[in-house]
Every structure is written in structure tokens, then in C-alpha cells.
Amino acid sequence: MTVPSFPPGFLWGASASAFQTEGAADTDGKGPSGWDAFAAQPGRIKDGTDTTRGTGFHQHYREDVALLAGLGADAFRFSVSWPRVVPGGSGPVNPQGLDFYDRLVDELCAHGITPAPTLYHWDTPLPLDEEGGWLNRDTAYRFAEYAGIVAERLADRVPMWITINEPAEVTMLGYALGEHAPGRTLLFDALPAAHHQLLAHGLAVRALRGAGADNIGIAVSHTPVWTAGDSDEDRFGAELYDTVTNWLFADPLLTGRYPDENLAALMPGPVQDDLATISTPLDWYGVNYYNPTLVGAPDAGAPETFSGFRMPPELPFGIREIEGYEKTDFGWPVVPDGLRETLVQLHTRYGDRLPPLYITENGCAVDEPAEDSRRIAYLEGHLKALRTAIDAGVDVRGYFTWSLTDNVEWTEGASKRFGLVHIDYETLRRTPKDSYAWYRELIRAQKAGRPGTPA
């Protein structure tokens, strides 16, 4: 397969997050997060990985920046740990925490790499989680305060900002199904967590701009929803799932309204006033894509899962296995054309209201330390599909693969490896994989204006 040339100026990057990589849970004044408390509960981390170590990024960041420079990457999407900067979620600022990100940004800039920080990648300060987390409206205002604090320190050197990562997953896995922090099992009563994250985003956009930041986006997960059957129940289930996973988040951000009046009625507070804040204009919109989802009517006998987690039978839809495609180590189907489908769908649905797009996450969990051929094939296929979407008129400005290094994959611990660089979790030694060399050569070829498959 040949990867075609991308437009001049197309941005090439890689991603990471604080909880998954930084470690150092109790150093430099960092406070605990809800994820730290959740991971400490017996059985929560399936392989027993010590999540407080991460990949040692807090100590090894210069080494990882050198790996980015070796790739020829234009940008690095990392996340700022809210409890490292404001340990209590509000109140006193931890100067050592800000100093760490100051050093990281300086290191990236010294290598000509654009810092692209995400301000929230799931690690809510524990004191806020204990007060209700995203079910509490006050959390949105505390997040905006924190966003302004970070921008005041870093905006002079950071030209690209991301407010929140994947509010859908936080809502579903953390508050509806109880599989992620904070472990709540509220089902549809989790919807206030979605609304408050969206409100936090809008408030943060305004706080960032007030502190001198510019070029602001958000990273939202999207999945093409395929209908499992021809019955009315199948179609209803698929449409509802599509609404609550895709449009419940994108519509308020891009149109200033919720996609369904019944869902809007379940949201807390002055919803119409909040929507004006939520829809504060963005400079760009980030898309996280991994795979399509096959959805139909609920079926108590089916092995229904969401990202590997069992779905409660009382939900009005059911997730089905997608057959006929290669699977990643997570069991996710490898469907590159789903990325094209997602981008074209966004372009069609929103038209002129859709700002320029960046692919803020795309990658696969495979463990092939010898040759890494499955990851290379995955990236190659998805980049070709991405170029097809651009040719169809979708304005995509850049691509961040997930992820630079292997990392602690939330409840999966160290058992699922997404990185271009292998991490030995005993020694924290970094070893570039064949996919690292492939991506490096791809970037070189693209910058030289040459299509083709890297050697």
C-alpha cells in the first residue's frame, strides 16, 4: 500500500497523557487524582500494574522529546495534570508542578516541536471527585480557573491548545458504567457529567483567550455507528447510540444545541444559557478515531461490550461483534475506511460550522516487539483513508498518532501497547519499534513532497 502525499504544511505529531506516562504521583507537590484512588482499589487494574510509575515521563521527558525530534515530529500532544498544578482542584497553585511543564515546553521548543497540551485527560483532582466530580457544576468553574493558570504561564510559547479529551468516555465509562474512575454506575443519570464537561470546555476557551492563548480545540472521540439488523428495534438502538456517543457532544459544541429535546431536558442548570458558552467558537476540532461500532436492539444472550466492558442488559441498545476484519489486541476491528466515513459524516452534518480538523488520536494496541508489522499496516491504512477524506473536501490539518510510547492503558495496565516506542516497565528503558522507523521515514518523505511507502 502507498501513502499518498498530504497537503503542504500538514502537521505530523504523536500523543501521550499525564496519568498514563508521568508517574511521580506524590512528588513535586502533585496531589492525588480520582484515577489514582480508583487504580488503588483491588482488581481495578487488570494486570496489577503499578500506575503510580507510569512510564517515568516525569523523569525521562528529555529522552522522550529526543525521540520526538528523531521522528521529525512537528508537534507533541501531551496532557497537563490538573492535580499536579492545582492539587486541591481549586485554591493554592503548586509552583513545582507549573515548573515541570515550563521545562517540558522549553525542551520541546528547543527541538522545534510544537507543544500541544491537553488540559484535561481524565485525571480529576481527588478533592473534586469526592465532591461529585463532573456531576457537580462547580467543577466546570474550577476547571476554567485552572485553564487560565496554565495559560498565564505557558501561552507565550504554546501555539496550540486542547481543553478536554473524550468527554464521552469519561461520561460512559466513569459515570454510567462504573468501569473507569470515579466508578459510578448511573446509566442515563450520568448525563449531567456530559453537560458539565461541555460547560467546562466553553468556560475554559474563554479563560484561555483571556490569558493570551490562541488556536484552541477539543479532542472528541467519534465512531461510525453501523446498524446490526433491519428491525425497528435495531434501528432505534443504533440511532440512540449514535446520538449519545457522537452528537450529544459535537452538536452542542458546533451548533449550540443538543441533538434531542428529550436528552436536553435531562441536563441540569440553565441549559440554554450554558449552550451559548459551550458553543464558544473553536479554532479547530479534534477527532479521536479507532473503530466503528455495530449496534442493535438489546440482546441478553449476546456478549455485548463497550471497549471491552460488559454493557448492562437494561440499556436500550446492544453492542455487537464486528466480524470479517482483523482485530487489535484490544479486540477492536481494524477498519481504516471508518476514519474516512467519520470525517465525511462530520463534514456533511456541519458544513460551514465545522472548523478545520485535526486527528488527535489514532493508533492500535498490538504487541509485536520483533517487527511491529501490524501497527505499520494499521497506520498505513488509516493515513490512506485520511487522504481520501481530504480529497473529498474535508479540511484536515494534521495527524497525531496514539501514542509516542507504550503507556499505562487505564484499567488494562501495561498489557495493551499502543506505542511507537517500547517501554520495559521494569527498567523504563525506551526502545524504538519498527513502526517508529516507519513513521520517521513517512514524515521525511511527506516533508519532501514524496508519496510512497517508507522503506
From TrEMBL:
Reactions performed catalytically: Hydrolysis of terminal, non-reducing beta-D-glucosyl residues with release of beta-D-glucose
MF term (GO), any: beta-glucosidase activity
Pfam families (UniProt xref): Glyco_hydro_1
Protein's UniProt keywords contain Hydrolase: yes
Keywords: Carbohydrate metabolism, Cellulose degradation, Glycosidase, Hydrolase, Polysaccharide degradation
InterPro entries named among the record's database cross-references: GH (IPR017853), GH_1_N_CS (IPR033132), Glyco_hydro_1 (IPR001360), Glyco_hydro_1_beta-glucosidase (IPR017736)
Record EC number: 3.2.1.21
SUPFAM superfamilies per UniProt: (Trans)glycosidases (SSF51445)
Cross-referenced PANTHER family: GLYCOSYL HYDROLASE, LP05116P
UniProt similarity note: Belongs to the glycosyl hydrolase 1 family.
Protein's UniProt name: Beta-glucosidase
